[in-house]
């Protein structure tokens, strides 16, 4: 589903109403899958065993696979699209389900660490903001094709605005 959404976004810089509906329907599908209670999920597929002998819930397995496919970068990219109002509510619901089992204090600590790391990286990367950024041509959606280990501040867009 994530790859399909990436394909839709990379196929044409301008999204038709039909393609916007497809993106929203994909987000709805992911939301609905994550909304299935764990007690019902074991009927579909038994709990998986990790290498350490611990059982891994189906929800955690699904989330792990979504993050491997860069769902975080895709969601960030979708938040910047001009058509974001068409799938905004669905995205909020999906994000709420992704982080539903996390404690607020844990998320705050992780966000603070991420902010500190991104601030130190940005000050190291570009001492002077007077130099024009490198422009690359042919990048249809740098957020979707960026290195999975990079963050959104290092997406190769060269400062140019991309449209969906």
From TrEMBL:
Subcellular location, record wording: Nucleus
Residue stretches making up the Timeless N-terminal domain: 2-150
Top-level division of the source organism's lineage: Eukaryota
Gene Ontology biological process terms from the UniProt entry: DNA repair; DNA replication checkpoint signaling; entrainment of circadian clock; replication fork arrest
Keyword Nucleotide-binding included in the entry's annotation: no
Record region (Disordered): 121-164
Gene Ontology CC annotations of this record: replication fork protection complex
Biased composition (Low complexity): 139-154
Pfam families: TIMELESS
Principal location: nucleus
Keywords from the named record: Nucleus
Gene Ontology MF terms in the entry: DNA binding
InterPro entries, alphabetized: Timeless, Timeless_N
Protein name, UniProt field: Timeless protein
Annotated source species: Drosophila americana
Lineage of origin: Eukaryota, Metazoa, Ecdysozoa, Arthropoda, Hexapoda
């Amino acid at each position: 589903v994530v790859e399909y959404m990436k394909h839709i976004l990379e196929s044409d810089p301008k999204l038709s109403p039909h393609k916007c509906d497809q993106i929203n329907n994909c987000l709805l599908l992911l939301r609905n899958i994550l909304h299935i209670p764990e007690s019902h999920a074991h009927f579909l597929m038994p709990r998986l065993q990790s290498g350490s002998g611990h059982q891994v819930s189906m929800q955690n397995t699904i989330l792990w696979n979504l993050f491997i496919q860069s769902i975080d970068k895709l969601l960030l990219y979708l938040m910047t699209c001009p058509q974001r109002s068409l799938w905004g509510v669905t995205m909020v619901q999906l994000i709420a389900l992704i982080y539903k089992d996390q404690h607020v204090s844990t998320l705050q600590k992780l966000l603070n660490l991420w902010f500190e790391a991104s601030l130190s990286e940005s000050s190291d990367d570009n001492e002077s903001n007077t130099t024009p950024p490198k422009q690359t041509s042919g990048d249809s959606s740098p957020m979707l094709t960026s290195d999975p280990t990079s963050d959104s501040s290092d997406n190769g867009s060269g400062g140019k605005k991309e449209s969906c």
